[in-house]
Specification:
30% of the residues lie in helices and 38% in strands. With 127 residues, the chain is of the alpha+beta class. The chain is elongated and about 70 Å long. It has a single domain (24-126), classed as Beta Barrel (OB fold (Dihydrolipoamide Acetyltransferase, E2P)), CATH 2.40.50. It has helices spanning 3-21, 38-43, 52-60, 88-91; strands at 27-37, 65-69, 74-77, 97-108, 111-126. The mean pLDDT is 85.
């Protein structure tokens, strides 16, 4: 193999790795964190919800609930079907609570999304 062909092969492999890494392919993850409304998660830089009542009130007023993980990552819960549906109904019973979530993780453009497969409250860990 000539050096020119070797370089082409290496470049092709690198491009394939980049292409597959940016496709947003799902992988299963488990996350621990708090369920709170998205506005507070972004604008107030909270480490946990102010209260369950506050998170519930904001969600009922239309603010999407998100999961704020222990490492500070904000996960937007999404549906994986079409037409997609909001996920507040699934999260509302856990508003303001610390939870463990298992699901399919997607990363695109710096945003983290999660298709929730299982969610459970972590006992005794409410705001």
């Amino acid at each position: 193999m000539t050096p020119k062909n070797e370089a082409r092969l290496v470049l092709t492999c690198i491009l394939l790795v980049i292409a597959f890494a940016s496709t947003g392919a799902a992988r299963s993850i488990s996350v621990k964190g708090y369920v709170l409304d998205s506005a507070c998660a972004f604008t107030k830089e909270l480490k946990k919800p102010i209260s369950a009542e506050c998170a519930t009130a904001c969600a009922k007023a239309g603010s999407p609930l998100v999961i704020l993980s222990d490492d500070g990552t904000i996960y937007l819960p999404i549906a994986d079907n079409t037409p997609a549906s909001g996920q507040n109904e699934k999260l509302l019973p856990f508003a303001g609570q610390r939870v463990k979530v298992k699901g399919k993780f997607f990363l695109r453009g710096g945003s983290s999304a999660l298709v929730i497969e299982k969610i459970e409250a972590l006992s005794g860990q409410q705001t």
